Amino acid sequence: MRNALAALAVVLLCAPAALAVDDGQTQPKVSTAVNNSSSTPTDLIATTNGSGNVKGVLCRLTEASGNYTSAVVKFYVNGGAAQTVSLDETYQPEATIGGTNYAYTGWVPFNVRFSSSIRITIQKSGSSGGGIECIAAWGLD
To answer: What does the pLDDT profile of the chain (141 residues) look like in tens digits?
Structure first.
């Protein structure tokens, strides 16, 4: 019985540390960026200081000459090497707004935690297609 009580006490004391770090105290932010280049990245989130969480990203891809391009999203967590995600244009639903054709990636949830800094860049995957416009939901603790 004592062992069970001791185990329960350890679980209860350690449980808060095991829960998600985002306890609702994050200061929410939204960042947007546009890029028309496949060789030069654009900051979606410029390098920050502090801890926080990137909730997700959504991109709008613009058609040009009948083509779209994929959005290349690079995460630099805590000053580390790039972690790259490509949001492929072939899987995106299309819409025409004001005579311009767009493809939307939809909301892509990430839940990327960082303890000291975050930087996210976007660029086109290739020279064909139009530009890309992305939005990120994130916050600092």
So the answer is: 444 444 434 444 444 444 445 556 778 999 999 999 999 999 999 999 999 999 999 999 999 988 999 999 999 999 999 999 999 877 778 889 998 899 999 899 999 999 999 999 999 999 999 999 999 999 999
Strand order of the sheet with strand 71-77? 42-45, 118-124, 71-77, 83-87
User: Total domain count for the chain?
Assistant: 1
Residue 17 lies in a domain: no
Rounded distance between C-alpha atoms, residue 92 and residue 123, angstroms: 17
Q: Tell me the CATH number at 126.
A: 2.60.120.1390
Q: Which domain holds residue 38?
A: 25-140
